[in-house]
Design brief:
single chain; alpha/beta; Aspartate Aminotransferase, domain 1; Aspartate Aminotransferase, domain 2; 2 domains; four-stranded mixed β-sheet; 13 helices; 35% helix; globular; binds pyridoxal-5'-phosphate
Amino acid sequence: MNATTPGHCAPSEAPRDALAPVYAQYPFEVDHAEGVWLINARGERLLDLYGGHAVAALGYGHPGWTEALAAQARACQFQTNALPMAIRARAAQRLLAFSQLELASVFLVNSGAEANENALRLALRVTARPHVAALEGAFHGRTAAAAAVTWGSEAWYGFPRKPFDVSFMPRHEPGAIAEHVTERTAAVIVEPVQGLAGAVDLGAPYLAALRERCDRVGALLIFDEVQCGLGRVGAPFAATLYGVTPDLLTTAKALGNGFPCAALLTSARVSAALKVGELGTTYGGGPMACAALLACIEAIESQRLLENVRHMSETIRRTCHVGPVSAIQGEGLLLGLRMRRPAKQIQAELLRRGILAGTASDPQVLRLLPPFILQAAHVELLRRALADIGE
Ligand SMILES: Cc1ncc(COP(=O)(O)O)c(C=O)c1O
C-alpha cells in the first residue's frame, strides 16, 4: 500500500441532533476508509494513527476479514449459545492457541466492559472475598463493576455505591503491593500496558510481583488486555510478552477489527468453578463475531503482523523523537509520545496536517494506536509533520 499525502480536514456539516452527546467531535466526517486512511465525502484523506480507539487492527477494507463476514452472513448470521455451532468452538480454540498461555476456556461477549464485568464477578464468586485491588490511572470500562475499578470514575460513576470494596495501588511501586493485596482480596485487575493513561508499560518485574503476591494470599490476577491484547504489543498478548499468566484475561477491540467481539479467557481453576446457567449473553459468541475473530487471527498470522508491529514500533521510536516530542513510552503499537507542550495542541496541529492521533488522561501524552498494517512511509509522514510543528 502506498502512503499518499494527507488531505485538508473538512469541518463536518451533517446535523446530528438525534444523537446523545458522547465524545467531543473531530472536524472530519468519515465517508469511507481504506488501509490506514479515512476518507471524507470530498475525497480528502486522514492518516489514521488512532484506529477508532485501537479497534481497526487490520486497517480498513481488509479482504480476508471482509470476505469472512460476508460468507458467514450468507451461511447463518446468528444463533444463540444454546445451539452449538462449529464456528464458535473453532473461535474459542483458535484464540486459546493464539494466546500461547495456559488458559483453559473462553467466554465470548460483546465489549471490553462486559468482559471485565464478568471477570470481576467470577473472581468475587470463586474466592468469596469482598475486595478488589486496581491501579492508579486504570481504565476498565463504564459498567458498574468495571467503572468501580476505573481510576477517577467518581466524576461520572452515577451509581449510589460500588458493588465491592476497591483500593487503588500506585504504579511501579512493588513495595506497595502487600498493603493492598491481602487475604480479603478477591482479585487484582490491571492493564499490563495501560491504554488511556498514556501507554504506560507496567513491565515484567512489576507484573511478576503481582502474580507472586496473588499466589501468596490466594487472590486471582486479572489482566485487562482489551486495548493492549491480540497483537498490539507485538506478541499475542502482553501476558505472553512478559511471561506472566493471569487467572483471567479479558480482550476486545482488535479481536473483531470493528465487529463487536470480546472475550474472557479463564484458567482451569476458574473454569472448573463454572456451572451451566451462570454465564449468559444474547449476542456474545454469535457466528459473525466468531468469523471476525477467526479472520483477525488468520490475518495476523499469515501476514506476519506481529513482526510488523514490532518493526513499526521500533521505527517510530527511532525516527519520531523530533519537534515537540520529549520521550516515547509504551509497547508495540500502543505508544505514548510525551510532548513538551499540552498533547491536545499537538493533536490539533497534526489534524491540520491530515494525521489523526489520540490523547490520554495524561495531558502531556499523545497516544498512537494505529492499524498493525502500518508502513514505514506512514511513519515518515508523522515524523515530517512533527518536525514541521517544531518544539
Ligand atoms: C483497557 C480497557 N478496558 C476496557 C475498556 C472498555 O471497553 P469497551 O468500550 O469495549 O466496553 C477499554 C476501552 O477503551 C479499555 O481501553
